[in-house]
Design a protein that fits this description.
Strand content of chain B: 5-15%
Helix content of chain A: 25-40%
Radius of gyration of chain B: 20 Å
Number of strands of chain B: 6
Number of strands of chain A: 14
Radius of gyration of chain A: 19 Å
Oligomer: heterodimer
Strand order of the largest sheet of chain A: 3-2-4-5-7-6-12
Strand order of the largest sheet of chain B: 2-1-3-4-6-5
Number of helices of chain A: 11
Order of helices and strands of chain B: HHEHHEHEHEEHEHHH
Distance between the termini of chain A: 43 Å
Helix content of chain B: 25-40%
Order of helices and strands of chain A: EHEHEHEHEHEHEEEEHEEHEHEHH
Distance between the termini of chain B: 63 Å
Largest sheet of chain A: 7 strands, mixed
Chain lengths: 326, 340
């Protein structure tokens, strides 16, 4: 049996699945309990699990993540919400300098089984300070796992694996996906981190995408097939760390062409690392230059016309891929 | 002198017994001798990187450590040798860590600024100002969730009181009534700048307490008895569910901010005034005045020196870390792989 639920509903279901299973799992953040979250993604959790395990905090991102870290190193498995991923900048010390390094610099004495979940990305016309895609900030720091699901079933499965992981995980929910529905199987879902999903098989070009760019890449692939006879393989990376480079390399070896579709601004987006891996390890298999479709290197504008202009659109993906295939 | 304003232990506090006083003295002496040796090993080129000594501030570490339950948590800063040792961490392990040896408490991967011994509930030395205050609040929250009645003590310097994380942590701990004791070691100098020249209030921690609904507490940080009694009170409040405390301990570092700093920007009179209040000879004299035999104190001093000598020997002879250990313990599985 399966059920059609939204990405938003998947969040509460994922948290509830893990809180029912393990009493040491707790959840804290701004407006997450009584209000059910600013995106209403955590509705019902306070009612089911009570005010000890589901707790509202002040607007104090360093306190939220510090509390999560201190609890994680002493036997609790916290889930901490940072309302918008842009706000990670206000507590980046905790994420990148404390959480990421503590196990290493204590010679393995400490363990940090915690998840930071955060609303990432554009599409809601929120402007430059509430729309960034910052998954590459986390990706470049050794010691952090980085997850970014594109659909409700993956959200639940990857979230469960993140909660059960003994490492700090930064879990990016793409906020424009919250109303999007997807099929979710009944029962407990757990999806291993570090395994990309090949969502569409193809023979002419490999497209790697993440989060909100996945449905766009899939739509572009359908149009490329229908309008231009180009067969595109679409890979949803799902996690950036660990990175499933093998699945990408295996695909590129067959299709001979590689395109990334990234929501982040151009410079040093996740695709830059992936392209460098492909260039180093699959160069002799390539028939065309590896190519990246990204948001240009500009802050995100608010106006819908302007935001639509800079985000990778289906049309831009189609044109770029068609050019690569030639 | 600022200490004249220091709040002395209240008359209702229990008297400190002789055994505890001797333990306090033994801690002060061994921390002093350790820091002196660490400095010497730096001059010999054996301690690499940087280090921040607690010379002159030992009474705070001693006073709290002797008041804490074995399973109470300590969080401290990069000036953390004394706090880590005071919880019972192996002195050889700490010295070896300073020397970057495999028998260091962190296997040589932490160094002077990141001393940690989880088995002694010394949960880490944090080198970013303010970062560990919210983390300490988290450990305190965890103790509440687990119902263990463990308290958490978090040490930091006066400079920390001007960073955002201090205020976030204080408010958070107060509003959640967490069993955490925040201890400001006010040594009057931020790093190279007098703390009173960069802070809006005379007492950088205590004068902020009211903003978080906390009692204003100032204690003579060079007096092991005074610190110890205040620590007992705060830990009792924490365990009773009465929430956090913020304690400002007035003290002075005998040297510079870090080992490369001779500290010669400080007025000569101020240095002399505080050297005259050196906690070690002051406390020895108090114990003599109270009737403790000099031979008992001499034995404590000899034992401290022997412990430091043995630790130094063990550290000097410790093996260099295996090169492969640079690639361990990034992840919980022990490895460092980020891709397949």
């Amino acid at each position: 049996m399966a059920e059609l639920i939204t990405y938003r509903e998947a969040v509460a279901r994922a948290i509830a699945q893990e809180m029912r299973r393990d009493e040491s799992v707790v959840f804290l953040g701004e407006d997450v309990a009584a209000a059910g979250g600013v995106f209403k993604a955590t509705k019902g959790l306070l009612e089911e699990f009570g005010p000890v395990r589901v707790r509202d905090t002040p607007i104090s991102e360093e306190a939220i993540l510090g509390a999560a870290m201190g609890a994680a190193m002493t036997g609790i498995r916290p889930i901490a919400e940072i309302m918008f991923s842009d706000f990670l900048a206000t507590c980046w010390d905790l994420v990148s300098v404390e959480m990421a390094k503590t196990r290493y610099m204590t010679g393995g004495q400490t363990s940090l089984p915690l998840v930071i979940r955060t609303a990432n990305g554009a599409g809601l016309r929120f402007g430059a300070q509430h729309s960034q895609s910052v998954e590459n900030w986390a990706m470049m720091i050794p010691g952090l796992k980085v997850v970014a699901p594109s659909n409700p079933a993956d959200l639940i499965g990857l979230f469960a694996a993140s909660v059960r992981d003994d490492n700090p995980v930064v879990f990016f929910e793409q906020k424009s996906l919250y109303p999007v529905k997807g099929e979710v199987p009944d029962g407990e879902l757990v999806t291993e981190l570090g395994r990309a999903a090949v969502l569409r098989q193809g023979s002419d070009v490999t497209i790697a995408a993440l989060a909100a760019m996945v449905p766009r890449a899939l739509e572009a692939a359908e149009r490329l097939q229908a309008e231009r006879g180009i067969s595109a393989e679409v890979i949803d990376l799902r996690t950036l760390i660990p990175l499933d480079a093998r699945t990408v390399l295996e695909s590129v070896t067959r299709t001979k062409r590689f395109v990334t579709v990234e929501e982040n601004p151009r410079v040093l987006g996740w695709g830059a690392e992936l392209v460098s891996i492909v260039a180093e390890e699959a160069f002799w298999d390539l028939d065309a230059p590896v190519t990246r479709v990204t948001t240009p290197h500009v802050p995100l504008p608010s106006s819908d016309a302007l935001e639509d202009e800079v985000l990778p659109s289906v049309a831009r993906i189609v044109e770029t891929v068609a050019k690569v295939v030639g | 002198m600022a200490t004249t304003k220091a709040k002395r232990a209240t008359v209702t506090s229990p008297a400190i017994d002789r055994e505890t006083k001797l333990a306090l003295y033994a801690q002060v002496v061994r921390l002093r001798r350790f820091e002196e040796r660490a400095y010497r090993l730096f001059l010999e080129g054996l301690v690499k990187g940087t280090s921040h000594l607690s010379l002159g501030q030992e009474a705070i570490a001693a006073g709290f450590a002797e008041a804490m339950r074995t399973d109470d948590y300590t969080f401290c800063t990069y000036r953390g040798h004394a706090h880590t040792l005071a919880r019972g961490t192996s002195m050889e392990g700490v010295m070896a860590e300073l020397l970057g040896r495999a028998n260091g408490v962190c296997g040589g991967k932490g160094g002077s600024m990141h001393l940690t011994s989880v088995e002694h509930y010394a949960m880490g030395s944090y080198a970013i100002i303010g970062a560990h205050l919210p983390i300490a609040a988290g450990a305190a929250w965890s103790a509440v969730l687990r119902g263990t009645e463990q308290a958490t003590v978090c040490f930091f310097g006066d400079g920390t009181t001007n960073i955002g994380a201090f205020h976030e942590a204080l408010n958070f701990a107060a509003v959640w009534k967490l069993p955490v004791v925040f201890v400001c070691e006010n040594n009057l100098w931020m790093e190279y700048t007098p703390i009173d020249s960069v802070t809006a209030v005379p007492h950088p921690a205590a004068d902020r307490a009211a903003a978080y609904g906390l009692e204003r507490i100032i204690v003579d940080g060079n007096d092991p008895d005074a610190v110890h009694l205040e620590a007992l009170r705060a830990l009792e409040r924490a365990r009773a569910g009465e929430g956090p405390s913020l304690i400002e301990c007035l003290t002075y570092r005998h040297g510079g901010h870090s080992r490369a700093d001779p500290g010669d920007y400080r007025p000569k009179e101020q240095v002399e005034e505080w050297l005259a209040r050196d906690p070690m000879p002051m406390y020895r004299q108090r114990l003599l005045d109270e009737g403790v035999e000099a031979s008992v104190l001499d034995d404590i001093e000899a034992a401290a020196m022997a412990e430091v000598d043995a630790a130094t020997e063990g550290a000097r002879n410790g093996p260099v870390p295996a090169i492969e250990s640079a690639y361990t313990d990034v992840w919980a599985d022990g490895g460092w792989a980020w891709r397949n």
